[in-house]
Amino acid sequence: MPADLLEGLNPDQLAAVTAEGSALVLAGAGSGKTRVLTTRIAWLVQTARVSPMGILAVTFTNKAAKEMLSRLSAMLPINTRGMWVGTFHGLCNRLLRAHHQDAGLPQLFQILDSADQLAAIKRLLKALNVDTDKYEPRKVQAFINMNKEAGLRAGRVEAWDPYTRRLVEFFAEYDAQCNREGVVDFAELLLRAYELLERNALLREHYQTRFRHILVDEFQDTSKLQYAWLKLLAGPEAALFAVGDDDQSIYAFRGADVGNMATFMRDMGIAEPIKLTQNYRSHATILDAANAVIAQNANRLGKDLWTDAGVGEPIRHYQAMDDREEAGFVVEAIRELYREGLAYADVAVLYRANAQSRAIEHALFTAGLPYRVYGGQRFFERAEIKHALAYLRLIANPEDDNAFLRVVNFPARGVGARTLEGLDAAARQGGMSLWQAACAGGGKNKGLAGFVALVEGMRAEARGLGLAETVEIVLARSSLIEHYKTEKEGEGRIENLNELTNAALAFAADADDQGLAAAAPGTTASAATADDPAQAQLIAFLAHAALEAGEHEAGAAADAVQLMTVHAAKGLEFHTVFITGLEEGLFPHENALTEPDGLEEERRLMYVALTRARRRLFLSHAQQRLLHGQPRYGLASRFLEEIPTALVHSLNLHRRPTPPPPRSTADWGGGKAPSQPSRELPHKIGARVSHPRYGEGVVSGYQGQGAEAEIRVAFPKVGDKWFILDYVKLTPC
DNA sequence: AACTCTTTAGTCGCG
DNA sequence: CTAAAGAGTT
Q1: Nucleotide nearest to A92 (CA to C1')
Q2: What DSSP line would sit under A639-701, residue for residue?
Q3: How far is the CA of A630 from the C1' of B14 (A)?
Q4: Average pLDDT over residues A83-111
């Protein structure tokens, strides 16, 4: 049996799978990384090096965790129960549920997703009377998360200037508010779990003894705190098996630290990583291009991908006049591929920024080709779903202020800003929740009393019932569906609400299936011993909604062209890949260039994009692109020039070199542009122009330089108006 | 309280 | 340009 397991592995893969002790595996794109991970787990169990109980495996996405589990159960006759496989957040949630008392949390703590967190911060800033122009809620949120992700509590953040000191105050107040309300945000999940193990020696030793083998996927994406957590959990004895690729590290902007790979080698005394460089995905031409591009980066552990799959076709490059023509090219090429027998679903169109999808979607739509856009709003993040979830949260815990505020007046029932102000004041004075304040001061406001009665009615009716029934009660009594019936375009929302019942059914079935512990992240030992199992399942479902916002994607099965950002494409592969918008300023993105290692990260992003393709690769750029409604002129991306010309076929040979753009409204050559001459004025003073909103007017003046340049137009009705020259759309008339 | 108008901001995004 | 949040109006 073990012989079967290891059959077909190349020597490097074999070395990785059977490594004794801790190891770092440098797994290039398409080198069989997931196979190595799952085979190693199976091998460890089969050779009795460890029981399933002693294994913990961490992934970054729920999808990866699921995939690992399903591959594992296909490989092994044994059950995967007892194994801890999940995301960092999922595992930390599990840990905190099991030891909520030691972690200082209520048994049924709720999880805030980023939108909930932002709402909580806004509420806090309002209560503190903070000028939100000076302290933008989003910035405060980023500050708090950044520090938590670095493992820092408010008390330990260094603040040298008054502004930062104020942010630290908000940080402290925010944590106090969360503790009062018994809620935990994503970063808190990790930090709290880390502190739990750090402070509680008994618990730490228990888990260190239990988990003999800890495996980490996408190790290059771990943050400092995550790595510290892993080390703590591993202790001195356990074997830590980390798999990653420094060349595919593209999440530094959200706290990932590639440096963890070098640190890990030092900490564990690993001299050399095991390198997986044989690629089973792409033809050599594609790999050569990817190798050449990534070779431009200085900070690498260093490896080149190779294949014995043959040279393959040359890469095609197309230079378009503008983004519309680029999209047209993509559509034509896809049509041709389809005629040749390729399925639409085998084609991916990648772009750097979501805003670019519009032009391509438009072209595909007009041509009548099926497509699917990845990313965007996820199921549990939709407004109507969050409303329904808020009612569920109030059933679980009516003192949840976040949930209370979300639906106290939705659908509208006459609880306005005035009423809420009073309620808020009463709550703060009495040191209680909004719910308590509403109950205490009942009767004052009819709508508020109605709301209290509504929620109490829901709670009473739902008592002891299953999850799906509870959801139905919420849908029936909240009149959310009635509300959306009156709204135009509310049909989709109603469908989603009904889908929520299905999600609850599926979740409950899953939980039954896998026994109490496995599927529901919340239902570990202590939660299962809650007084009310229905309540526990509700909490588990709410945690599931926060931790797995996606999953409920519709139409995934249909044959459709796949549209997504390069980030979203990581980990996927396609027969044919289009990488569009290869222009300086866009890819590499201008914003990235201002950051220290920004260009190298952009280049890694390009490397990820290139290595998604199995057989065919199309690259394109546009000389002119509409961005925010204004034309921008871009030079070809430097990444295009970094690909050896011998690998690339230009599809523009018939075309003359295009003349330079007529006029540079925004000078953004990424450093390559000539020094900016005084800008040409698009409209002479005194010229008659038309504005989309204000109608006709007369240009009366200019002021400012560069991006701040403004134009003044006199309108007969509204008088003089200043507009930012780069953004205003004025047509001569 | 509900509606409409105006202003604003816009890289990538797991859990 | 466009979506979303904030300000202003009815």
Answers
A1: B15
A2: HHHTS-GGGEEES-TTSPPPPPPS--SS---TT-SPPPPPPPPSS-TT-EEEETTTEEEEEEE
A3: 32
A4: 95
Look up residue A314 and give its DSSP letter: P
CATH code for the structural domain at A110-181: 1.10.10.160
**A684 CA – B6 C1', rounded, Å:** 28
Is the CB of residue A523 inside 7 Å of nucleic acid strand B? no
The response to whether A70 counts as a known ligand-binding position is no
Is A315-378+554-650 a domain of CATH 3.30.420.40?
no
Q: Which of A12, A33, A393, A537 is catalytic?
A: A33
Q: Do domains A11-101+191-278 and A315-378+554-650 have the same CATH topology?
A: yes
Residues 600-629 of A with CB under 7 A from strand C: 626, 628-629
Range A133-138, long-range pairs (CB < 8 A, 24+ positions)? A135/A166, A135/A167, A135/A170
pLDDT at A79 over 90: no
- Reported as a single tens digit per residue, the pLDDT across A147-196 is 999 999 999 999 899 989 999 999 999 999 999 989 999 999 999 999 99
**Which residues 58 to 97 of A reach strand B, CB within 7 A?**
60-63, 87, 89-90
Subset of residues 84-123 in chain A with CB less than 7 angstroms from any atom in strand C: 122
Share of chain A above pLDDT 70, in %: 86
**Which pairs with CB-CB distance under 8 Å and at least 24 residues apart come from A506-509?**
A507/A467, A507/A540, A507/A541, A507/A544, A508/A466, A508/A467, A508/A468, A508/A537, A508/A541
Query: What fold is seen in the domain A380-518+530-551?
Result: PCRA; domain 4 (1.10.486)
Annotated binding residue A357: no
What pLDDT digit, counting tens, does each position of A219-271 carry? 999 999 999 999 999 999 999 999 999 999 999 998 999 999 999 999 999 99
Would you say residue A556 has pLDDT above 60?
Answer: no
